[in-house]
From TrEMBL, chains A, B:
Protein EC: 6.3.4.3
GO biological process terms, semicolon-separated: carboxylic acid biosynthetic process; one-carbon metabolic process; tetrahydrofolate metabolic process
UniProt cross-references to SUPFAM superfamilies, sorted A to Z: P-loop containing nucleoside triphosphate hydrolases (SSF52540)
Organism expressing this protein natively: Corvus moneduloides (New Caledonian crow)
GO cellular component, as recorded: cytoplasm
UniProt xrefs under InterPro entries: Formate_THF_ligase, Formate_THF_ligase_CS, P-loop_NTPase
Protein name (record): formate--tetrahydrofolate ligase
Pfam families, per the entry: FTHFS
Name of the gene encoding the protein in the UniProt record: MTHFD1L
Sequence similarity: In the C-terminal section; belongs to the formate--tetrahydrofolate ligase family.
Length: 657, 657
């Protein structure tokens, strides 16, 4: 089996509630329509029995010892596969991105799932979807699930939306161990002499004193080339035992995977046992942890360990960076993350394979699922197969980061971008009224209005142009809603093609599954055979400010950028610390191409304000803040948990959607 | 297969590093001794390849659809098994408890593992060990692993000690969702009118307003027998929308599974978005969550859901209890816990089956593994088989709670108590010098000293007498160390038998595996056929104070108890709230029979001071505090993570012990 890729991905199953095959969305069968419109995502998910994950794994060419099964429907896939298939050519690599969305989202996940269902079950092409794991916090807050929806979703959706295989829990554990280590270390340094610290850090065990491996590494970094603890001078001991962390510079925060707004700002250390070393801190939602960004970008266990060690958590009192490695915790973090690094295999409603792996924030991080899942999937589908993955937010953010950060980390070259648009979002960009989550849509969105659509296509055009900056062909996928008129649909497709899209097709995957995305699949297949001249947007060697300016001007259409004094001094510090050659991860609103969410369409003439600049050194990027980014959601007055229940007899979950 | 129990538990495997069979501990082979003494627990664990968990599951009579495999060596077992085997008679039920321990621990876990290894592989009797899942916090702090040790451990020990199958992570998620819900609810009530709260809690969806199931339940509890949201009076609306929580009475704390001392006392809500509603709070280690105690005591999914709903998190401003059910979160908590309720199957070094399930604190909770794991194991071993489980701390605490709390919840009747003693602990009780973790043992403990042993046997005698209060036969297991002399060993066994033990035998399971516990297994088998007149120590109908007094006097040997005014007022409140009939879970030091850790042997004449009384209503017990109990450990100057590492090539974990 060495070197063999999968022999087939023909996973389509008989559905208990069959999708209407070959019908257009305008004339659905009434009985089926009733089922679709009155069924929640979880009901549709449950109506389909997933195949056993070991069967799925065998279908796609995995060997028995390459998977670790978690229950009936999930399995982790071992990285050893990459070694076995290293001579296998990669498949085609497709990114699903979107136009500037409404707050409701325009359906990138459903397009991703619909597209692989169409490719695999309808065009007989091996394909794989690589998706992000959602945070559990919003599942119980306002959002409900995130497994796609309708007939284009990952099943079982409750497994997808809840603990999955524990990756986010592992991140939480690793993140918080490091946080605890920082404060405990400061306390111990503040309350002990050099000698006492040394005696405890390098204790006598069975009559002998020895450095641990990670302590020897620290000594080498400090330029102390000694291995016998008895030979250090007092000055060397002091250098060794004191990290001398400046508490006001700590950037490492604790995390929970819960929407807990009361943890946005807290004071810690108020018990007597902490001897008055209180400080103000915050908790972020777990997926905002730098460890999540590392999981998404890492390429191997060795690489992950190195990245974990390089994470900068604070500066010392001389302004030098203090890392996880300095705290002696790299190995423990790697141990906590040893299973999380393996992608989780699941399936779509039509039995197509899916990897769910990593889900970093799309503002303070890069918002893309993992490099490792993509790499493994590209080997598994074989040279003619397709791997479809998704970038968070609009193409100006998610796609730009996908190319400049994720593709740089992986070395992979994308074949096609699918740009998802909706008539609803285009009307908003054309001047339609506000779209707000929870409020009913205004009539502009439910009745035909060709003018609003035509005016809004400027945003689509701009996002197409952004894609073209990177030299990759773009196919527009118009995610059709039942209120869209045929004339509106035709208009969007026509304007998209006039704007330079390779093709533009309407999709009905939500209501019709893979069958509703067959045209999209055909267009993507053709586009993948086009000439591809992929390139990054900027060279890493440019100064940080220059890289920010290129993104702001070329992608967002800003006139220029303006750095606050804080931002400028952070840029200077990172440059001086040797971090100037990292790529840039912009933390900007996704609701506008500009920094002002209310400016729809294609804003021009604005100066992009950079309020602060931060760094995720382990993940490997600098992130400029354009405005304030919330890293901890809250619970509303009526959280969705009011509807969530478990049937104690059937063990079925109710109320996720 | 319906109704069939397991056909055999003969799981002994060829060991790469064989245990010395039939040798006494005094004359070990030199080469083997070197291996044992220079091997860490993780090296011994790794030297043995565990059998695949599906093979193990088949051996013990589980059907394919009754297990959910997690990787190669762990599986969750479905509760449906209890229904299939409901007519199968239970096996014998053995509790491993201990004398009052030194801070080093006396080896209850190793005895538990050694005993089942001896029963299964050497006496050919089906047996099962049921163990607690350890908290991950101490694994990286001071303690290292908790899977037993030497040749009597659960393998792979790194899987046992790390995430396992995610149960503690699920508890953390559920615990913290409830915590977030409490603070968010207070904020929303404080910032909105009744009308606005009602509009949000019972929103108009598709033109209609409806209560969710959990809101209808709340209306019924409030005596409002209406189902149409439009018909509530203003007064009824106000009653419905306002939980009116008194923030000063909140007892529900957030948790993390990390030793993070800076979270012992914190102030939350300091961001502007929380509008000044700051309050002081604390984080506990995850295993201190009431949800962990519920997991350990629950008997079914339905029962767990009811217990989760009944958890009291605070009082309202009238002094009435506010529950998780009032907050509308019961169903969501049950959903988060739906997999955690299934015990995890693993194996010992000799291939004997082990359930790892739940690990509540042994002071503020009852310190015993789960009722469900015991129940399932008792069916699986069959009528002649043995299930061995363990109680935290000394018998005065762990065993007393096992009988009065856990056996009451399960209805199970124990057959035998194994009381673990060491020469070391007995010498300490006989007046030997202090034993401190991390410091070398004084010579009294490494050289023969029959007088200290003889004097210290009073503690063993007292713990035997405590066991006899419950009418269960007791076998003393002397956990032999290499420094114990034959005369010391003989003396302990003789005095134990004179004190009323059914038998007393030396055990060498740590160095010799199951073979080292064969005599213990034979004694336990005989004892299990003795007359058993098991009884609880007190009736639930007695007043709270009376129940506390019975435990203090009969078990601890106190002269009397003394309640602080706070404790008395809490007793009055719980009694008035209708919680007076719950069993008592004493939160007392385990280092003495009294409340003073330094008083060894058998202290007398003391008055047990009850400083406070708290309640875990969902778990179902009242817990009086005897002194201060820390619910959040810290990291020392040199946490064990300095030694923990992951080999990126072999993926092996190093440095756990």
């Amino acid at each position: 089996m060495k070197g063999a890729a999968c022999t087939g991905f023909r996973g389509k199953q008989t559905q208990k509630h069959p999708c209407p095959v070959g019908q257009s969305i305008q004339q659905p069968q009434i009985s089926w329509l009733l089922f679709v419109f009155f069924s929640s995502d979880i009901e549709i998910s449950r109506a389909q029995s997933p195949k056993a994950v070991d069967v799925l794994a065998k279908e796609i060419g995995l060997l028995t010892d390459e998977i670790e099964i978690y229950g009936q429907t999930k399995a982790k896939v071992r990285l050893s596969l990459l070694e076995r298939l290293k001579d296998q050519p990669d498949g085609k690599y497709v990114l699903v991105a979107g136009i500037t969305p409404t707050p409701l989202g325009e359906g990138k996940s459903t397009v991703t799932v619909g597209l692989v269902q169409a490719l695999t079950a309808h065009l007989n092409i091996n394909s794989f979807a690589c998706l992000r794991q959602p945070s559990q916090g919003p599942t119980f807050g306002v959002k409900g699930g995130a497994a796609g929806g309708g007939y284009a979703q990952v099943i079982p959706m409750e497994e997808f939306n809840l603990h999955l295989t524990g990756d986010i829990h592992a991140i939480t554990a690793a993140n918080n161990l490091l946080a605890a280590a920082i404060d405990a270390r400061i306390l111990h340094e503040n309350t002990q002499s050099d000698k006492s610290l040394y005696n405890r850090l390098v204790p006598v065990v069975n009559g002998m004193r020895g450095f641990s491996a990670i302590q020897l590494a620290r000594l080498r970094r400090l330029g102390i080339n000694k291995t016998d603890p008895e030979t250090l001078t007092e000055e060397e001991i002091s250098k060794f035992v004191r990290l001398d962390i400046d508490p006001s510079t700590i950037t490492w925060q604790r995390v929970v995977d819960t929407n807990d707004r009361f943890l946005r700002k807290v004071t810690v250390g108020q018990a007597n046992t902490e001897k008055g070393f209180v400080r103000q801190a915050q908790f972020d939602i777990a997926v905002a942890s730098e460890i999540m960004a590392i999981l998404a970008l890492t390429t191997s266990l060795q690489d992950m360990k190195e990245r974990l060690g390089k994470m900068v958590v604070a500066n010392d009192k001389k302004g030098e960076p203090v890392t996880a490695e300095d705290l002696g915790v790299t190995g423990a973090l790697a141990v906590l993350m040893k299973d999380a690094i393996k992608p989780t295999l699941m399936q779509t409603l039509e039995g197509t394979p899916v990897f769910v792996h990593a889900g970093p924030f799309a503002n303070i991080a890069h918002g893309n699922s993992s490099v490792l899942a993509d790499k493994i999937a590209l080997k598994l589908v074989g040279e003619k197969g397709f791997v479809v993955t998704e970038a968070g937010f609009g193409a100006d953010i998610g796609m730009e980061k996908f190319f400049n950060i994720k593709c740089r980390a992986s070395g992979l070259v994308p074949s096609v971008v699918v740009l998802v648009a909706t008539v609803r979002a285009l009307k908003m960009h054309g001047g339609g009224p506000n779209v707000t989550a929870g409020a009913p849509l205004k009539k502009e969105y439910t009745e035909e209005n060709l003018q609003l659509v035509a005016d809004g296509c400027c945003n689509l055009q701009k996002q197409i142009q952004i894609t073209q900056l990177f030299g990759v062909p773009v196919v527009v996928a118009l995610n059709v809603f039942k209120t869209d008129s045929p004339a509106e649909v035709d208009l969007v497709c026509k304007m998209a093609k006039e704007s330079g899209a390779f093709d533009a097709v309407p999709c009905n995957h939500w209501s019709a599954g893979g069958r509703g995305a067959v045209k999209l699949a055909q267009a993507v297949e053709k586009a993948a055979n086009q000439k591809n001249s992929f390139k990054y947007l900027y060279s890493l060697e440019l100064p940080i400010v220059e890289k920010i300016r290129i993104i702001a001007q070329k992608v967002y259409g800003a006139q220029d950028i303006e750095l606050s004094p804080t931002a400028q001094s952070q840029v200077d510090r990172y440059t001086q610390q040797g971090f100037g050659n990292l790529p840039i991860c912009m933390a900007k609103t996704h609701l506008s191409l500009s920094h002002q969410p209310e400016r729809k369409g294609v804003p021009t003439g604005f100066i992009l304000p950079i309020s602060d600049v931060r760094a995720s050194i382990g993940a490997g990027f600098i992130y400029p803040l354009v405005g304030t980014m919330s890293t901890m959601p809250g619970l509303p007055t009526r959280p969705c948990f009011y509807d969530i229940d478990l049937d104690p007899i059937t063990e079925q979950v109710k109320g996720l959607f």
